[in-house]
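Figure S7 source data.
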Amino acid sequence: MVKICCIGAGYVGGPTMAVIALKCPSIEVAVVDISVSRISAWNSDQLPIYEPGLDEVVKQCRGKNLFFSTDIEKHVYEADIIFVSVNTPTKTQGLGAGKAPDLTYWESAARMIADVSKSNKIVVEKSTVPVKTAEAIEKILRHNSKGIKYQILSNPEFLAEGTAIQDLFNPDRVLIGGRETPEGQMAIQALKDVYAHWVPEDRIITTNLWSAELSKLAANAFLAQRISSVNALSALCEATGADVSQVSHAVGKDSRIGPKFLNASVGFGGSCFQKDILNLVYICECNGLPEVANYWKQVIKVNDYQKNRFVNRVVSSMFNTVSGKKIAILGFAFKKDTGDTRETPAIDVCKGLLGDKACLSIYDPQVTEDQIQRDLIMKKFDWDHPIHLQPMSPTAVKQVTVTWDVYEATKDAHGLCILTEWDEFKTLDYQRIFDNMQKPAFVFDGRSVVNVDKLREIGFIVYSIGKPL
Ligand code: NAD
Ligand code: UGA
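Tokens for the predicted uridine-5'-diphosphate-glucuronic acid complex:
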């Protein structure tokens, strides 16, 4: 029986390995992590992440050929293939701070593999890493090898949160990069054999190591670039009377452009787009390519501009002050169908409004009060470092309340901001909300969720990103 071990039981490691276990009953899969609470949650009925369809997959294989454990060394020792899916946050200090990825977690995983291994291993980069990371990992492993042979593969993950299970069941492609040596090709084949249990062969792409590493950064940069492009146009739409959803539709009908990923928003969030573009920018700078670096930097600048623009719109519409006013925040997660708040635009928007002394009442169907308070206190880029898994500090933001009831959140509010596109926001009783709000009652829709005409009929003053005012 082939044995797989995955180091890192997070948003990628957990779902990816659960699907491999489900699709490959002949493979034993162990997912290990240094976080005891995360592993306990994976072994309980309350999984540590909310992801549609994940519970069913885990229930079907857990205890059969899927195991979650903190006994990292034992499972690494036994494995034939080791996936490394640890976090690769942006560095907060030192060389490359604010841009370069912090590979501390990756390096410590590699050193541990070298320490405990007694047989040949295939080590798979699942985390998103800078180009040439495989070379560094090879050095660490080979210089500590005690005669053991390692093959490093790059197998970046393309799943999106909220649709992770669907994406894993039916991926557009699986990408495997490896050395162009006979041993490298054999390792690629071994990993191909795993995916071939359910992924059609023509969707499994093989490349050299550096192309695979760079393709992951490039794919995220392209996706984020589309959003920044449409968000930049949303500002022009508001200035000219064009409607950004009509423009997106018309542009996306061109089959060379395609309709997906053209929804204007308050800005993109999530743990990866910004981090991976900064990573790309840093690599370009280190390779003496400042023009290329500046090109990609603009994608992030436009995203920051979009979030600021939204805050400015709220404040200026509400007579240039939100001081002491109650503003309801509907949605805090970075997108619908996830409880993940990493780099969510809601953090910057809330901080902006708090800076203008607003009182916020926040509702999100999947995000806890502790998480929201932690996010609002934390410094930029600190969220991905384990220190923040520590209990909350007593300095919670006083102007913020969090409730599980959307009608309570909006009661007596002067304005409401929709920051996540949860489906339930489409069907709220907006008449009831209007009746219980201060007048004039403002709606700021950062996700094109509401029917603007209907809300205006009720009496709201409505601002919706990219729509005529
Ligand atoms: P995560 O923070 O949810 O999970 C990482 C886990 O690794 C944590 O539970 C942490 O405790 C654990 N860990 C860190 N160091 C460890 C060590 N030395 N030994 C054992 N466990 C250790 O992160 P994630 O969202 O799963 O992302 C992981 C990687 O995958 C990142 O590089 C990310 O860029 C990439 N990625 C993420 C997504 C996504 O949707 N979240 C999609 C594609 C790629
Ligand atoms: C993204 C990519 O889609 C995945 O392919 C990739 O594997 C992953 O990053 C990663 O490397 O972590 P994810 O961040 O989970 O996945 O979610 P997306 O659906 O890409 O959304 C990212 C952000 O962009 C969200 O805030 C979303 O609301 C926003 N978005 C998305 C828009 O504002 N407009 C759109 O048209 C699409």
